């Protein structure tokens, strides 16, 4: 005699798929899910022991704010322009898009081709500054060494 889905309590469900009916037994699922339950709890409590780590490169691994401000100042110097020193302008230089900064904050060129040239040059200056970066922010190297070479070998990924 075939046991009904859901063991003694009748817990379970059936669904139909193109390749035939799928019968799901809740007791079976609970048993299967218990196997990974403790690992999931451990990873929730200690995420650095999980399967991998994703880092935001910006201001976590490298101080990209300083690099971005430096790029803006280099561009202004090349163009013979001034960068406002007030905190609002500095914040916009860091967090607003280059289009907005060039149009609304710095009030530089209006021609579209000239704006494209300035944005391209800004990107190149930022990239050059990033390549000259010799070491990560304080503590990052030690933390990565523990994560990668410690008791748990983890895959790491950086995003920007």
Describe the overall structure:
InterPro entries: HAD-like_sf (IPR036412), HAD_sf (IPR023214), PGP-like_dom2 (IPR023198). The protein has 160 residues and is an alpha+beta fold. It has three domains: 7-45, no CATH class; 52-60 and 136-159, no CATH class; 64-131. It is 52% helix and 14% strand. The strands form two sheets. Strands 1-2 form a two-stranded antiparallel sheet. It has a two-stranded parallel sheet with strand order 3-4. Strand 1 (12-17) and strand 2 (20-25) form a beta hairpin. The longest helix has 20 residues, at 26-45. The radius of gyration is 27 Å and the shape is elongated. The chain starts with 11 loop residues before the first strand and ends with a strand.
Question: What's a quick, concise take on this entry?
Answer:
With 160 residues, the chain is of the alpha+beta class. The protein contains six helices and four strands.
Number of contiguous helices: 6
Major sheet strand order: 1-2
SSE string: EEHEHHHHHE
Task: State Rg.
Answer: 27 Å
Unreliable segments (pLDDT under 50, ≥5 consecutive)? none
Number of domains: 3
Give the helix level as a range of percent. 40-55%
| Average predicted confidence as pLDDT | 75
Content-based structural category = alpha+beta
Number of strands: 4
Q: Major beta sheet, specifics? A: 2 strands, antiparallel
Per DSSP, what share of the residues sits in E-state strands of 2 or more residues? 5-15%
